[in-house]
Amino acid sequence: MRATAALFLLALATPSIADKPKAHLGLPYAATNNARQTLDVYTPAAGKNLPVVVYIHGGGWQAGDKSEVHKKPQAFADRGFVFVSINYRLLPEATIKQMAQDVAKAIRWVHDHAKDYGGDPDTMVVMGHSAGAQLAALVCTDERYLKAEGLPLDPIRGCVPIDGDTYDVVMQIKTVEPVDAKRAERFRIKFGDEKMQVELSATTHVAKGKNIPPFLFLHVADHPETKGQALRLVKLLQDAGVPAKAYPAQGKTHDTLNNDLGVAGDLPTQELFSFVGEVLNKHGLRGLKEE
After folding, report:
1. Is residue 143 domain-resident?
2. Looking at residue 119, which CATH number applies to its domain?
3. Number of domains the chain is built from
4. Which residues span the domain enclosing 259?
5. What is the biggest distance separating any 2 CA atoms in the chain, rounded to whole angstroms?
6. pTM
7. Pick from 61, 286, 15, 270: which is nearest to 157 by CA?
8. Of the ranges 49-53, 130-134, 152-156, 279-283, which one carries the lowest mean pLDDT score?
9. 291 domain residue, yes or no
10. What are 120-169's pLDDT values in tens digits?
11. Helical H runs in the chain?
């Protein structure tokens, strides 16, 4: 490892504590008055051309809010990142495909306005938890969503889905149906017929030469569904030449894995920032503001 990369990774692991990030709340990213199409931007006290994290909350595609960020804004600000948390329309107001379109529209807004908040529009990492993990993985593999907003996948330098169970929707339904037919039916209601289930699966869209970013999957170590889904997508990405790995979070639940990100000493947090450091260094980028 080059000396500069090693120093960068060390800084990511042991940040200097910054001031409380400045919060810019309820910014609309679409030409509507819909509160579900707004986002929050958290910025460090100082810095320019900082990497930007776009976070997508969970909630089963029918609940959740951009305010549910826990320690993440402070943890990323301490390391010199701009942190953006987005809302998106939910069931039954919108379909899951329309939610992915909202995510792409929000990413386009972030790209257009990043410099206004000290961010680098061409250095973004997309994260999402649970339902947000499915949306993050989908938008980072199916380039059509960003293409519709006039963006390629290139500005996204990394993707971190957190404990998702629907990267392959058809597989998930087949997995749960023998033990919980009602739950399988709820997936069908949310995702639609099998053709739409395939379209909304990140696994469908993995291919070589698409500039798909590197992936880190954080999943509960002993959860067979989120583990199985992560490993399936990891293999497909690796087979397509995309760097990808899964991290089994020991002793975590679906909620604590996400909520504890940013807590001092938290092992998944360390894995997260190690991954971010690696992908930014690969492109010769810095993730910390100048001291």
Report:
1. yes
2. 3.40.50.1820
3. 1
4. 3-282
5. 56
6. 0.93
7. 286
8. 279-283
9. no
10. 999 999 999 999 999 999 999 999 999 999 999 999 999 999 999 999 99
11. 3-13, 72-78, 96-113, 131-139, 144-147, 169-176, 181-191, 194-199, 202-205, 224-239, 254-259, 267-282
